[in-house]
TrEMBL record:
Subcellular location: Cell membrane
CC annotations in GO: plasma membrane
Organism: Natrialba asiatica (strain ATCC 700177 / DSM 12278 / JCM 9576 / FERM P-10747 / NBRC 102637 / 172P1)
UniProt keyword annotation of Transferase present: no
GO biological process: transmembrane transport
Transmembrane segments: 31-50, 70-88, 108-128, 195-217, 309-334, 354-377
Similarity comment: Belongs to the binding-protein-dependent transport system permease family.
Keyword Cell membrane (UniProt): yes
Coiled coil location: none
Protein name (database record): Binding-protein-dependent transport system inner membrane protein
């Protein structure tokens, strides 16, 4: 048998400086993440600095991106990097969470529904023009339905028995202005996803930073941050938005930014409460005693262990944001340049006795979207929080 005569490395021979340098080096994931955001920054720079003023952002497709579109892209990239990639990397935990989540059948169906809404809302407006006024097609009923031919307008479908029957030219019918409701609903899907996801991302980012920092540092930092949260929660954000509407007009971008920047107080309290409990855990104390910096401890230990509560809180926040945007659009305080479910519902409120579909169809989509987010939020709470008792649905 051959004898290994090579000297063995002992504990004293380990080059700890070399190990520290290796630890500090960027991982492949970090490099890819930085590259993705650099590409985003390059695209943004091209669109606002290098591109001719009247040219489209993506000229071959005729797509012109606005500030809200760029913010939406940034949100989707952040969700991809911060949620999708970690779920893929931690396959065992993802499978466990999915087993718990799928016990709630209503939540699984809701997740599929939201996926369809997201895909249609993200792709459809890129290839469909906004609904235009066409008085010759006013009050056309949805396909497979009919309405009394009681208005002095031409029926685009078949007229039988004194009733106008719907046609596939307008599957969901039209409004009193002749706007196609299907196209309006598709644009409303995009608006709802933008409002819910962008405002939620802004909210969760600020709430996580404030809540974890307050819990970790404590003392006067905790007191100052929580007193600010108390003041912000009582601040009349709605009246601030009304003032912006009065001065500059309704804007979906300003609404998302205002409610995102000023709506994180409640979630910050939840994060702080969870982080205060985790701060006294052995792994956090061990990291402190080993000389870990506060930033490293918060990023690697506190934040990941409060993420479950944050995710469930955000999934329950999103439907409130969507409903609030629809309410503002219904009252005429939304963005007049962007079709919204609330705007379409408002346009048909005076025609319910004769043209029920104008308000009912977008109202159904709004109702099921909010309900789906609530189902998903409840199921995520049961799946991610081991203290919750989830039952089979």
């Amino acid at each position: 048998m051959a004898v290994d005569n090579e000297p063995r490395e002992t504990f004293e021979d380990v080059d700890w400086d070399d190990i520290d340098e290796t630890t500090r080096s960027f991982s492949r994931k970090t490099i890819v993440t930085i590259g993705v955001y650099v590409l985003f920054a390059v695209g943004l720079l091209y669109d606002y600095v290098l591109k001719p003023s009247r040219a489209d952002t993506i000229e071959p497709l005729g797509i012109s991106l606005q500030a809200l579109d760029w913010l939406y892209i940034l949100t989707l990239l952040t969700i991809l990097v911060g949620v999708v990639v970690p779920l893929y990397e931690n396959g065992r935990m993802t499978r466990y969470y999915w087993q718990q989540f799928r016990k709630n059948r209503a939540a699984v169906a809701s997740l599929l529904y939201l996926g369809v809404i997201f895909l249609i809302g993200s792709i459809g407006p890129r290839f469909l023009e906004q609904p235009t006024v066409d008085s010759s097609n006013a009050y056309q009923p949805p396909v497979f339905t009919s309405a009394p031919n009681w208005l002095p307008v031409e029926c685009a479908g078949e007229v039988a028995g004194g009733s106008c029957h719907g046609t596939w030219a307008h599957p969901f019918g039209t409004t009193h202005e002749g706007k196609d409701i299907l196209v309006s609903v598709i644009y409303g899907m995009e608006v709802s996803m933008q409002v819910g996801l962008i405002a939620a991302l802004i909210t969760i980012t600020i709430a996580a930073i404030v809540g974890v920092s307050a819990a970790y540092f404590g003392g006067w930092i905790d007191a100052a941050l929580m007193r600010y949260v108390d003041i912000q929660i009582t601040f009349p954000t709605f009246f601030l938005y009304l003032m912006i509407v009065y001065l500059y007009g309704g804007s979906l971008f300003s609404m998302i930014v205002i409610f995102g920047l000023l709506g994180w107080g409640g979630i910050a309290r939840i994060v702080r409460s969870e982080a205060l409990q985790r701060r006294e855990e052995e792994y956090v104390l061990a990291a402190k005693n080993a000389g870990a910096s506060g930033y490293w401890t918060m990023r690697r230990h506190l934040l990941p262990n409060v993420s479950n509560s944050v995710i469930t809180a955000v999934t329950l926040l999103i439907p409130g944001l969507i409903l609030f945007e629809a309410s503002l659009a219904f009252l005429g305080l939304g963005d007049p340049t962007v079709p919204s479910w609330g705007e379409v519902i408002a346009s048909g409120r005076n025609d319910l006795p004769n043209a029920w579909w104008v308000s009912t169809i977008p109202g159904i989509f709004l109702f099921f979207t909010i309900l789906a987010f609530n189902f998903v939020g409840d199921a995520l709470r049961d799946a991610l929080d081991p203290r919750a008792e989830g039952g089979d649905q």
